[in-house]
Design a protein that fits this description.
- Helices cover 29% and strands 11% of the residues.
- It is an alpha+beta fold and 126 residues long.
- The longest helix has 16 residues.
């Protein structure tokens, strides 16, 4: 009898490796359990995914990162504080030896770039 602990939790493992999947496959299943709410209930805390907020908001007339922050990003975040007393803005943190890192390495193709901004660079056109 093998009493060693598996390297991956059973829900994530596929034999000896990590199980890969598509998150969008869960949408049809989740839609059966969700009902739209006509009004927002009282909220004391809001948690926002920073990367999603960046993708959601369009740069409008902002031409630099500083202008984007001043004209678009910060006003959006401040508007959310009208609905709650606490707001947490969360950003991804990629840990080298994590399950997420392993899955990302298996599906990645192409070159990854790290962009560091002083705030005055032009926004990319996309």
């Amino acid at each position: 009898m093998n009493s060693s602990k598996p390297s991956l939790p059973p829900a994530l493992s596929d034999g000896d490796g990590i199980r890969l999947g598509v998150k969008s496959d869960l949408l049809a299943w989740l839609e059966d359990f969700s009902q739209p709410k006509p009004e927002v209930p009282p909220t004391s805390c809001i948690v926002l995914d920073g990367a999603v907020v960046i993708q959601l908001l369009k740069p409008a007339t902002a031409k630099s990162f500083n202008r984007y922050a001043q004209q678009v990003f910060v006003p959006h975040i401040l508007s959310k504080l009208q609905l709650a007393t606490l707001l947490d803005l969360v950003w991804d943190c990629y840990i080298t030896d994590s399950l997420t890192s392993t899955a990302r390495a298996k599906r990645e193709k192409g070159v990854r770039r790290r962009v560091v901004s002083s705030g005055t660079e032009q926004l990319p056109q996309s």
